[in-house]
TrEMBL record:
Coiled coil: none annotated. It catalyses: uridine(2552) in 23S rRNA + S-adenosyl-L-methionine = 2'-O-methyluridine(2552) in 23S rRNA + S-adenosyl-L-homocysteine + H(+). It is found in: Cytoplasm. The gene is rlmE. Its EC number is 2.1.1.166. S-adenosyl-L-methionine binds at residues 72, 74, 91, 107, 131. Residues 40-214 form the Ribosomal RNA methyltransferase FtsJ domain. Keywords: Cytoplasm, Methyltransferase, rRNA processing, S-adenosyl-L-methionine, Transferase. This is Ribosomal RNA large subunit methyltransferase E. InterPro entries: RNA_methyltr_RlmE (IPR050082), RNA_MeTrfase_FtsJ_dom (IPR002877), rRNA-MeTfrase_E (IPR015507), SAM-dependent_MTases_sf (IPR029063). It holds the Pfam family FtsJ.
Length: 226
């Protein structure tokens, strides 16, 4: 590459035009280059960094859950921003070890997954993060429904796991969370907002829903004396 111009990729044998375009985009993506230079495993790290700058998600968080942790960019950010925090992550895909992070390679929707995460956390969470998305099948409506089902499962996990005042962030698609999910979050949190960080590609349909100020479960309320 000369003069800092855009790098182009030749179409190799057995490589599809789509994969060539993806490779070219990666080579010319400033966030990809920055992630490599700064030691982050993926450009997704900058989405969390930008959202944290705006919403203060990680401030004061001592126990953090990362749903859909692979390859580990968000967990790396959490450990860097809050070095003493307990961070627990889960993903179907393998994730290389991260210092100070407990990792589970298993299906988050498995019956025993939520309890294993809570046991590893050792107490109520301050922040539940979800960058999960369902494997796509190429049918937009089906893909959206499958991903939103994961987001809803993540939201219920957060409601059952967070301490009062805790926060929840999740990737959603096609402009934001659906009405039922927003209604649930508004019932459980004091503020619910949508955001698309600069690191999220403009052509991507992903957004993030940020719910803060968890109101707490009935069992969290202080008990009055007789």
């Amino acid at each position: 590459m000369r003069g800092g111009g855009r790098q182009r990729v030749r179409t190799a044998r057995n490589r599809t035009a789509a994969s060539t375009r993806w490779l070219e985009r990666q080579l010319n993506d400033p966030y990809v280059r920055r992630a490599k230079a700064e030691g982050y495993r993926s450009r997704a790290a900058y989405k969390l960094l930008e959202l944290d700058e705006k919403f203060g998600l990680l401030k004061g968080a001592r126990r953090i859950v990362d749903l859909g942790v692979a390859p580990g960019g968000w967990a790396q950010v959490a450990r860097k921003r809050v070095p003493g925090a307990t961070v627990v992550g889960i993903d179907l895909l393998p994730t290389d070890p991260i210092d100070g992070v407990t990792l589970f390679q298993m299906d988050f929707t498995a019956e025993d997954a939520p309890e294993r995460l809570r046991e590893a956390l050792g107490g109520q969470a301050d922040l539940v993060m979800s960058d999960m998305a369902a494997n796509t099948v190429g049918h937009a409506q089906t893909d959206h429904l499958r991903t939103m089902a994961l987001v809803e499962a993540a939201a219920w996990f957060a409601i059952e796991t967070l301490r009062p005042g805790g926060g929840f962030i999740a990737k959603v698609l096609a402009g934001g969370a659906d009405n039922d999910l927003v209604a649930l979050l508004k019932q459980q949190f004091t503020t619910v907002k949508h955001a698309k960080p600069p690191a999220s590609r403009k052509e991507s349909s992903e957004w993030y829903v940020i719910a803060q100020g968890f109101k707490g479960r009935a069992e969290d309320a202080p008990q009055s004396g007789d």
